[in-house]
């Protein structure tokens, strides 16, 4: 009995030491299979909790911001936009925009989010903050432009063009963008179908999963 107790103490001590490292590793690497929402969330369970919190806070279905995030960054925490070039495309000169992180949020819009939500410690390379930002943006798109939170196509156009650009229908001059928005819509529908098959399991607490 004493020997078994010692083994448990060693196991728990090791877990305490390694747990922060494991979490950090999961937080900074993209999912292995980004085409399946269930596999994404089973690999990164804290992502499901963050996405569910954003859903409950902003009334946004999980599959919509997740499909938009895939399109924006492929779930890379440090994603950056392409470089800009000058002198006939020969010399790199900064980036084409200030977008950064999981959500590819631009600096001015991110600052608006921080001001409106009082989330001063938010970081664009933190998944929980990024998914909350996207929930906020989708919520605002519904308020400003009357776009359904479930309409991934129109929501992505708002996200890409901004609320004013969407009102002006700037996307009508960008056939390529409409094709991208259609891809986002198709992915969101796949994600929604997949999530229905695994969300009950994802909603179980870690202790329940341990004994199930």
TrEMBL record:
Q: Where are the transmembrane segments?
A: none
Could you tell me which residue ranges the Transglycosylase SLT domain spans?
15-198
Classification via CDD domains: Lyz-like
Q: Does the keyword Disulfide bond apply?
A: no
Entry annotated with the keyword Signal:
yes
Tell me the keywords, alphabetical order: Signal
Q: Which domain of life is it from?
A: Bacteria
Name of the protein in its database record = Transglycosylase SLT domain-containing protein
UniProt signal peptide: 1-24
Q: Which residues form a coiled coil?
A: none
